[in-house]
Amino acid sequence: MANGFKPAGRFLNNETEQRNNVCYHKKTGKRIPIIMPVHVLGNMCDMDKFMAIAKQHNLIVIEDSTEALGSYYKGKHSGSFGLMGTFSYNGNKIITTGGGGMIVTDNETLAKKAKHLTTQAKSDSFEYIHDEIGYNYRLVNVAAAMGVAQMEQLPGFIQRKKEIIAFYKKELQGVGDISFQQVSDDVNPNWWLPTIKTEKQKKF
Ligand SMILES: *Cc1c(COP(=O)(O)O)cnc(C)c1O
């Protein structure tokens, strides 16, 4: 593609190799353990295809589902396909806590590990003993409370987003060279950010 971006499948087929069921980048010899689909603008990746590619190359899937909170692929929520799903609740997202985010997983060991690392990796709640390098990445209670209240409103936000995209489509479809993002029938998007494509972007 024009910007040098290579589709994941082609990159993996041409530029990586398997040794003992581990994926390596041929040129650098580096191990590639994970692949991260980024669902953009409320739309979702073709997850059947994506999971098949990941399996073929022995890669763990961790989804960046930030822009697809409330979006579904074949009835399954974004962020629930891979080992983990990640969501940012920065100020410009469909819901916000002002900053910070969330990891979802059904792997209990990893959930505990994530909690440990984000709460300073303290191995004893009285003594200041850290069993590894930890971080102060906790979502503070006030922000979390805001997130809970926002989450309750998500269905209403999505409903409004659907009205907004319908309005833009009604008004802009067929005007000049304007086209809208294609959404597959498998995807029920949250329509987080309506976008159009046109050659006259700057002028517009
Ligand atoms: C906003 C966004 C991020 C970054 O989130 P921060 O909380 O600002 O770090 C990452 N991925 C996607 C797809 C986003 O939309």
Structure, briefly:
With 204 residues, the chain is α+β, with helices and mostly antiparallel strands. Helices cover 30% and strands 17% of the residues. It has helices at residues 8-15, 47-56, 108-118, 141-172; strands at 16-19, 22-25, 34-35, 60-64, 72-73, 76-77, 84-88, 101-104, 179-180, 187-188, 196-197.
Give your account of this protein's structure.
With 204 residues, the protein is of the alpha+beta class. The protein has a domain at 5-100 and 156-197. It is built from 4 helices and 11 strands. The strands form 4 sheets. The chain has a 4-stranded mixed beta sheet with strand order 3-4-7-8, covered by helices on one side. Strands 6-5-10 form a 3-stranded antiparallel beta sheet, with no helix packed on it. The longest helix has 32 residues, at 141-172. The model has no long low-confidence stretch (mean pLDDT 94). Pyridoxal-5'-phosphate (PLP) binds next to loops.
